[in-house]
Amino acid sequence: MQEEYTFLHTGPKHAIWGTENEMPILIEVLVWICWEEAFDTNPGVTWSAEPVSNITSTDEETMEQVLQESSIWPWPRESESDLERQKASILRGLGFHECIHDGAGTWELLEPTDERPRNLVRDTL
Hints:
The chain has 2 helices and 7 strands, in the order βββαβαβββ. It is α+β, with helices and mostly antiparallel strands. The protein has one domain (7-124).
C-alpha cells in the first residue's frame, strides 16, 4: 500500500528534457509541490517536482489551478548555449513563461537523492 502525503500548495511547473539528434525534446512537465512535512532523507526539503497524477484527494478548483499554471522553474539559461535557447523557444511556443520567485530566500535545485526519479528543491531563507 502506497503512503499518502499532504501538500500545502503547488508551485510552478518543471520541464524534463531529453535530446535527439542534438535537439532538445520535452519529455515531461512536472508540478512543484510544497509538502506539509520535510522528507526523511532530506531534512529541510519540502518541495519536489511530481507528475500531475501524484496529486490526489484534492478539489476540482485546486486541480484546475494546477493544470492552468503556465510558469516554469527553473527556466532554461538562454545565455549558456544554443540548446538552452531552443528549450526556451519550445516552452514559449507551448505558452509557458519563466517563473519569477517573489518570496523571501532563494531556491536551490538539488539532485535526486533516492531511487525515485524526481527533483527536489530547497527554499533557503
